[in-house]
Design goal:
CATH architecture of the largest domain: Orthogonal Bundle
Structural class: mainly alpha
Helix content: over 70%
Number of strands: 2
Number of helices: 13
Largest sheet: 2 strands, antiparallel
Distance between the termini: 76 Å
Number of domains: 2
Strand order of the largest sheet: 1-2
CATH class of the largest domain: Mainly Alpha
Length: 315
């Protein structure tokens, strides 16, 4: 009898394990398409780019191993450092104001007495979903080199001379930075608005009873509790700023790769790969850019993470 019961238990255990294996296999099959697609269009190009960074290749002839020569060529090129400078400057001018203005706009959109909230929210978010080509066309008209353009007209009202926005050093940087700011500030605003709405109203009511005004509530309640959302947007803004490509390319057109006023690191990479057919130096530039992104993102995240801690220590 014991042997019969033992065999039944083994059969049941085998059936149970087989059902577990079936569930496990079906689960892996469901998630397999993502990993297959990621491996083809994500992981493989990244690994191949890492391999190309140590090769000399024009896309047609056989590859030649050159070691660290590609990195040396890139790092000794003045245009590369000019592109790094342009990227950082336009990144600061275009993305840093987004965080401040986005928090203020989100705070205003969350006010109880504000009417037509949905209209304002859609309007602020609209630039993010607008076609990049349409944005560039609009801004090319607004920041035209002609004296009668809207930007030059506004400068003239305040007594300033017209600016050649498409050819001057700082005119180009300012125009592109404003374009980046206009296009992305609504995205950050919606994220901050979601963060503000997750904060309990009891805190604001208690602060109002204690005599705190709206500015004090923003500084001492909203800002510290928005810390996770600020860290997220700072990280995304840093990565996006260092990968700036579409805005200057579309705004300047074919002249974007022949002048260095707005040459960014990604534009420098694109020029090497698809204009000069130097895929080795382009891949080396991509690896250097990855290192720069990691460094700047880590610094910005660390500074942002310390915001709430410093507030508490100050109290």
């Amino acid at each position: 009898m014991d042997s019969v019961h033992g065999k039944d238990r083994k059969i049941k255990k085998q059936r149970f394990l087989s059902e577990e294996k079936k569930d496990m296999i079906s689960g892996y099959l469901y998630i397999a398409p993502f990993f297959v697609i990621f491996g083809i269009i994500g992981l493989y190009p990244a690994l191949f780019s890492l391999y190309l960074a140590f090769q000399k290749w024009n896309g047609l002839s056989p590859m030649t191993f050159v070691g660290l020569d590609n990195f040396k060529i890139v790092l000794e090129d003045p245009l590369f450092w000019k592109s790094v400078y342009n990227t950082i400057i336009m990144g600061l001018m275009g993305t840093a104001p987004q965080i401040i203005v986005g928090i203020v706009l989100a705070f205003l959109l969350n006010l109880t007495f504000l009417r037509f909230k949905n209209f304002f929210r859609i309007t602020i978010f609209m630039p993010y979903i607008t076609s990049m080509v349409a944005v560039a066309l609009i801004f090319s008209v607004l920041f035209s080199n002609h004296e009668s353009s809207l930007a030059n007209y506004i400068l003239g009202v305040f007594g300033f001379d017209p600016v050649s926005w498409g050819t001057s050093e700082w005119g180009t940087k300012i125009a592109i930075s404003i374009m980046v700011f206009w296009r992305w500030v609504g995205y950050n605003t919606i994220i901050y608005l979601a963060g503000i709405q997750s904060i309990s109203n009891d805190l604001y009511e208690a602060a109002t009873i204690d005599g705190a005004n709206k500015l004090q509530q923003l500084l001492y309640i909203t800002m510290p509790l928005l810390k996770p959302f600020i860290i997220l947007t700072v990280f995304f803004s840093t990565v996006g700023a260092l990968q700036l490509f579409s805005e200057p390319t579309v705004f300047l057109g074919t002249a974007a790769f022949t002048r260095d006023e707005a040459m960014t690191v990604v534009m420098y990479l694109y020029r090497d790969a698809f204009k000069l057919q130097s895929f080795g130096t382009a891949s080396a530039t991509a690896i250097i850019l990855l290192f720069i992104i990691v460094v700047f993102a880590s610094i910005n995240t660390a500074l942002t993470s310390g915001y709430g801690r410093k507030k508490k220590e100050a109290k």
